Amino acid sequence: MDFTRLTLTELRAALRSGQTTSVAVTEALLERIVAVDNLLNSYLTLTDEMALIQAAEADERRARGEDTPLLGIPVAVKDMICNEGVETSAGSKILEGFIPPYDAFVVARLKQAGAIILGQTNTDEFAMGSSTENSAYLTTRNPWDLERVPGGSSGGSAAAVAGRLAYAALGTDTGGSVRQPASLCGIVGLRPTYGRVSRWGVIAYASSLDQVGPLGRTVADCAALFQVTAGYDPLDSTSIDTPVPDFEAALTGEIDGLRVGVPREYFAEGLDPEVEAAVRAAIEKLADLGADVVEISLPHTHYALPAYYLIAPAEASANLARYDGVRYGPRVPGEDMVDTVKKTRALFGDEVKRRIMMGTYALSAGYYEAYYGRALKARTLIQTDFREAFADVDVIAAPTSPTTAFRLGERTDDPLTMYLSDVLTVPVNLSASCALSVPCGFDQEGLPIGLQLIGNTLAEATILNVAYAYEQATEWHQELKRLEIGD
Ligand code: GLN
User: Fold this and answer.
1) How far, in whole angstroms, is CA 28 from its chain's centroid?
2) How far is the CA of 174 from the centre of ligand 1 (A)?
3) Could you count the other beta carbons within 10 Å of the beta carbon of residue 387?
């Protein structure tokens, strides 16, 4: 049996019943990574030796009768998330060789849950991008078509999960970086409510928007990974101290009478007709399953993209000031201190420099009110839109990405077109809601399409259950089992 074709929850059952061992599946995945990842480029750093040690320990613990939620299950972690003793670079030359002295909260939770960490996955530099082409190291490819992007910035995590090089993975979503690559790679990705998952040990991009989220081959797989990473952490001052529900138990598939809002602003110009058709058909399916579908309006949606591209760069310009060649990573020596900082900061890639310049400009005296201040006001309007919508509906259904996976290089010379990839995901980040992407079809070229389900504050269990009901009623997720890369 090819255990790499199992989902995470299927593997968990196989490990519990003794059909296979963690060492066996970890070895199988590591072999597959060696054979296939030269095509996908999903991993930046492999922690193979450590993974095999962890797997042997997991098998020993199981032999002693112990069990933990992810005992012996191999997963991957985006390179924005610190893993103690393992190079964590944020896809940037400015952090080349940086070895974190501690685990991020979410990595510590994975280890406690018994997960095996296979390695750090590729990302756009500092998670700035929508295609993973902004990584300073590698260009990740889409497992469905190697000439296309996997989406970004968690493209390495998405490609690894879709390509069966990990059973699930963690990503970060500041403006769509979990949902958009999940959509483009035909898997499930969840952006939790801001504050649900601790940011401790996650390299900061835009601190008021960043959130760690799971990517999995099925809704249940995402729920299982999310379960172990969610929860209060006093080390993150924005962490929410509230009980964490049992997300897997919430997957009843029962959505009778649930109210689904369809925002007309998310079906606007620029939306690929094939994406629109698949998403509308998915919404009809929800109605067939007993949901009550109503059209709604989120009237300030058009402010979201410009507001995001002021707020995120503004926060990034402050967060990235710390990379001065003194405290982290490499130093390029110059004639004096200022020259050293200048030469070191030249290690940033073009997109990161562009964001730092945009952000610094938006925050500068004389322009602060006109740009940053107004963006914050737009953010409040967008938050109010969602609050008003959720007074009437339980979930909001929309496309995740306006298009399917685009060709490598197609948008690299045109930042604005690249930014438009996020037009349907950034509103959630600016608000206090949560959202996920679940596969809902393929276009004529065989590329996956994602349905976005948006939930109210801390209502992850609700959107996971709606996605589960939809997944159980459709066959799209089965296609992944047939996907062949270099096989
Ligand atoms: N593509 C968006 C950006 O470049 C979102 C990235 C993210 O969510 N990390 O900012």
Assistant:
1) 25
2) 6
3) 14
CA distance 184 to 199: 25
Rounded Cα distance, 150 and 225, in Å: 21
Q: Which of 92, 128, 157 to mutate to test the pocket of ligand 1 (most atoms within 8 A of CB)?
A: 128
Residue 130 CA to ligand 1 center (angstroms) comes to 6
3-state SS of 192-228? CCCCCECCCCECCCCCCCCCEEEEECCHHHHHHHHHH
Instruction: Count CB neighbours of 473 within 10 A.
Output: 14
Please choose, from the candidates 418, 359, 346, the residue with its C-alpha nearest in 3D space to the C-alpha of residue 93: 346
Distance 230 CA to ligand 1 centre (A): 21
Cβ(177) – ligand 1 distance below 6 Å: yes
Low-confidence stretches of the chain (pLDDT < 50) are none
**Identity of the residue numbered 140:** T
Torsion (CA) 263, 475, 179, 14 in degrees, nearest 10: 140
Residue 444 CB coordination number (10 Å): 7
Q: Which of 132, 214, 201, 128 is nearest to 166 (CA)?
A: 214
Of 112, 212, 119, 224, nearest to 172 by C-alpha is 212
Instruction: Pick the atom of ligand 1 nearest to 312's CA.
Output: 10
d(CA 89, CA 133): 15
Q: How far is CA 57 from the centre of its chain?
A: 29
pLDDT of residue 482: 84
Distance CA(381)–CA(367), nearest Å, equals 21
Please check whether residue 109 is in contact with residue 150, taking contact to mean a CB–CB distance below 8 angstroms.
Answer: no
Measuring CA to CA, which residue among 401, 467, 391, 469 is closest to residue 433? Answer: 391
